[in-house]
Design brief:
Layout: H1 3-10, E1 35-45, H2 56-74, E2 77-87, H3 92-108, E3 112-120, E4 124-134, E5 149-153, H4 158-166, H5 174-185, H6 191-196, E6 201-206, H7 211-222, E7 225-229, H8 237-242, H9 272-279, E8 286-290, H10 295-305, E9 309-316, E10 320-324
Parallel strand pairs: 2-3, 7-10
Antiparallel strand pairs: 1-4, 2-4, 5-8, 5-9, 6-8, 7-9
Helix pairs in contact: 2-3, 4-5
C-alpha cells in the first residue's frame, strides 16, 4: 500500500464545511465573519505519551481529544484538523481502529480532517487543530485579576493514578482501576464548558501537565499569585472510598498505607495521592478564573452541563501558588508537574 492509498483509505472523509480538503497541497478554509482562527498543535510520541501496545481505537480518540482540550481552553469552537503520522509499518488493522477512534470523536464535535502527512519512522502522532472564536471573546491566560475565584472542572488525579497502576507503582481496586484507566486513555475534552465560559471566565487553561504547572502559566501571564485549598480539590468518590480508609489524605501530610503502594516515590516530599492530584497531569480538565460576582452563574452552568465545577481557591497579589492544608498551613511542594526536558 502506498502512502497515498493509506491516506485515501483511512483518513479521507467528506468535508462539507471546507472549501478544499484532503488531496491538494493545502486545504482552503473560510473563517466565519466576525471570528478569528484559533490554532494549536500537540504531538504524541510512543514511549513518552503512550505505551507501544496502546489500544489503537483509544489512541485515535486521545490523539484528537488532547487537541480539542486546547480549543476548549480558548473558548473556541473546533472546526478543522490536520494529522501527521510517523508509522513503523503499514498495519491495516491498527489503522482501521486508530482512524475509527479519531473520526468518532471528530464527528461528535463537528471537526473535519483537512490534511496532514504520513511517513515511515517510529510511531509519532501530531495533530494541528483549528477553531473559531468571536473577535475579542477568546479565553486567555493573561486575564486573571486579584480577587478572582479559581475553579476546576470534574476531578483531578484520576489519569495519573491510572498511569501509576499500569507502571506497577500502585495496585488499584477494580472499580477505581476501570475509572482511572478510562480517564487516562479516553479523556473528555470540555469543549461545551469552554464555549459557555466566554464572557464569564477571566482566564482559562486545560490541565495537561498538572494543576500546579498549568495554573502557574495563568499566574505568570497574568502577573498574579494564587492561594489554593487542598481540602477543596475534587477527587472522584470511588477513590475516596478505596484508596485509604476512611478518606484520602486531605491534609496532604498523611501517606497511603500498604498494600496500595508497591514502590516509593522518594524525594517528592508529599503524599503519593497529593502528587497525583496536584501534579500528575493528563487530566484534560479546565482550570479557570472568574470574578466572585459570577459564582452563582457558574454553579448554574455546572448544573446545566451536568459537569461538576469546583471553586478551589482565589487569585491574590504577588507571585506563585500557595497550597494550604486543612489547617491553613502551606504545603511543601517539590513537584509541580510534568516537563519533557527536566
Amino acid at each position: 500500500m502506498s502512502e497515498f492509498d493509506l491516506i485515501r483509505r483511512h483518513f479521507t472523509c467528506a468535508t462539507p464545511n471546507t472549501l478544499l480538503g484532503v488531496g491538494d497541497d493545502a486545504a482552503l478554509l473560510q473563517v466565519s465573519e466576525g471570528s478569528v482562527l484559533a490554532v494549536s498543535s500537540d504531538m504524541l510520541v510512543c514511549g513518552t505519551h503512550f505505551f507501544e501496545d496502546a489500544d489503537p481505537y483509544l489512541l485515535g480518540h486521545k490523539t484528537l481529544a488532547v487537541n480539542l482540550s486546547d480549543m476548549a481552553a480558548m473558548g473556541a469552537q473546533p472546526r478543522w484538523a490536520t494529522l501527521a503520522l510517523s508509522l513503523p509499518k503499514v498495519d491495516e488493522t491498527w489503522l482501521e481502529q486508530f482512524s475509527a477512534g479519531f473520526f468518532s470523536l471528530a464527528q461528535q464535535h463537528g471537526v473535519e480532517l483537512v490534511g496532514g502527512d504520513t511517513t515511515r519512522g517510529s510511531l509519532n502522532l501530531c495533530v494541528t487543530i483549528m477553531g473559531e472564536v468571536p473577535q475579542g471573546k477568546a479565553l486567555r491566560r493573561d486575564g486573571a485579576q486579584v480577587g478572582d475565584e479559581v475553579w476546576v472542572s470534574c476531578t483531578l488525579g484520576d489519569a495519573a493514578l491510572g498511569l501509576a497502576h499500569l507502571q506497577g507503582k500502585i495496585a488499584l481496586p477494580e472499580d477505581a482501576r476501570i475509572h482511572c484507566l478510562a480517564a487516562l486513555h479516553q479523556p473528555t475534552p470540555r469543549v461545551a464548558l469552554g464555549l459557555a465560559l466566554r464572557g464569564v471566565a477571566t482566564s482559562a487553561i486545560d490541565i495537561s501537565d498538572g494543576l500546579l504547572s498549568d495554573l502557574g502559566h495563568i499566574l505568570e501571564r497574568s502577573k498574579v499569585g494564587a492561594e489554593i485549598e487542598f481540602s477543596l480539590l475534587p477527587i472522584v468518590e470511588v477513590l475516596r472510598k478505596n484508596l485509604t480508609h476512611p478518606n484520602p489524605p486531605l491534609s496532604g501530610r498523611e501517606r497511603l498505607t500498604p498494600p496500595l503502594i508497591r514502590g516509593s516515590w522518594e524525594g517528592l516530599g508529599v503524599s503519593f495521592l497529593q502528587h497525583c492530584i496536584l501534579s500528575g497531569g493528563d487530566d484534560y480538565e479546565l482550570c479557570f478564573t472568574a470574578s466572585a460576582i459570577h459564582h452563582a452563574e457558574i454553579l448554574r452552568l455546572s448544573e446545566k452541563l451536568n459537569l461538576p465545577l469546583t471553586r478551589i481557591g482565589k487569585i491574590v497579589a504577588g507571585q506563585g501558588c500557595v497550597v494550604q492544608d486543612a489547617t491553613g498551613n502551606p504545603l511543601k511542594i517539590e513537584s509541580t508537574g510534568y516537563d519533557h526536558f527536566r
